[in-house]
């Protein structure tokens, strides 16, 4: 533990996010604001009192996790977070558990969800879309080098940091894949054909999702939408891809090649891997090495934000802090979380 808050802040400035080693307990954290809620968990901005640093604390209900058969996903999420350290991923700071909850401590990314910014803007400009896409491609490439497929890309799972760069969050569907997996997961509008058809999939589904994301950033909506998921799947498999008037020509070519249902021809899935995406003419002005370091012209991202400090939550919606109704789990079920 740090002898002073000043030393702790210096470590954060140097490393991006300080890892909290040792025996973390809930009483070490003061809740500040609810950042988001889910089916069996909540994410809160918290202040770590021993250091004075701010984090996002994901609090997961053990009983509901068991009930909904999500234990494996929670363990996988923590395992993925532990091995990752990249400027375009939300980074892990620590974890702990008690009798009713699991806790994951992550860096607080205070620029809010891309979804919110896209909803407010209607659509992003070409240069914004280009640079956000480049951020995401960098993050996914890092995961793929670790043999990890992300599998849940969408604007709701992308946060913006205080400099306006994009960071991928929520690794509940991420999975280490050596060859193929057959698990159905993801958001209907973003599912690749091989997932819908249960043909087995690998990391190539992430490049399909990048194509959907770029289309949505540029137009305001995914290419295939409907009220019924089955109708969405039919449209995806039908493959009729229409672009709104004025859609950037080089971007249109990139999206078409990312949304190729044939994985042997899909950009990112061939021999040169991610290099085929990075060298596409849409990204000809991007210096990928400088972007990864976020230096020079890339020290600020594609969106200017007005963040006042490390605990500023102005870009997050207000959620009520609901009472904790977590139930006790059976003593024999506690062993399910031994790997956490």
Q: Can you offer a commentary on this structure?
A:
The chain is globular and about 55 Å long. The strands form 3 sheets. It has a 5-stranded antiparallel β-sheet. A two-stranded antiparallel ribbon has the order 6-9. It has 2 domains: 5-110 and 311-335, Phosphorylase Kinase, domain 1, CATH 3.30.200.20; 114-298, Transferase(Phosphotransferase), domain 1 (Orthogonal Bundle), CATH 1.10.510.10. It is built from 11 helices and 9 strands. The chain starts with a helix and ends in a 47-residue tail after the last helix. Strand 2 (41-48) and strand 3 (53-61) form a beta hairpin. By secondary structure, it is of the alpha+beta class. Helices cover 32% and strands 14% of the residues. The chain has helices at 5-15, 62-67, 71-83, 114-121, 126-145, 193-196, 204-219, 229-238, 249-258, 275-278, 288-293, and strands spanning 29-37, 41-48, 53-61, 92-97, 101-107, 148-149, 158-160, 166-168, 175-176. Helix 5 packs antiparallel against helix 7 and helix 7 runs antiparallel to helix 9 (249-258).
